[in-house]
């Protein structure tokens, strides 16, 4: 959104029109958003300027919430309690996606 006039600069649909109700994380010009899916969710990395999908990762368990980015790595918790959604799939663990550097 343009901070000066409120114009929406870009918008993107989530996979299968799933819900993206968690917080987004922005780091180094990339927007990270989790598209909650039942029973599976998708982590999307979008170019902040254009909204272009840079990459996405479909997880084999439910996703909800946001991600953390530290020193070039994106950390994402997976699996949510069945008390939140009867269709959610467990598999409680943390995934890390790290940029590979070449010297």
The tally of helices reads 0
Query: What distance separates the N and C termini?
Result: 37 Å
Q: What is the spatial order of strands in the main beta sheet?
A: 1-2-3-4
The shape is: globular
Note the quaternary state here: single chain
Structural class determined from secondary elements = mainly beta
Major sheet details: 4 strands, antiparallel
Secondary-structure element order, as H and E? EEEEEEE
Mean pLDDT: 78
**Nearest-angstrom radius of gyration?**
15 Å
Strand content: 35-45%
Query: Would you identify the regions where 5 or more consecutive residues have pLDDT less than 50?
Result: none
Q: How much helical structure, as a percent, in the residues? A: under 10%
Overall number of strands:
7
């Amino acid at each position: 959104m343009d901070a000066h006039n409120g114009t929406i600069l870009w918008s993107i649909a989530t996979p299968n029109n799933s819900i993206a109700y968690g917080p987004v994380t922005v780091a180094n010009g990339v927007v990270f958003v989790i598209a909650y899916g039942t029973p599976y969710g998708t982590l999307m990395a979008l170019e902040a300027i254009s909204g272009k999908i840079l990459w996405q990762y479909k997880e084999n368990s439910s996703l909800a919430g946001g991600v953390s980015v530290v020193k070039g790595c994106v950390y994402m918790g997976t699996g949510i309690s069945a008390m939140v959604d009867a269709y959610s799939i467990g598999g409680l663990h943390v995934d890390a996606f790290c940029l590979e550097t070449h010297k």
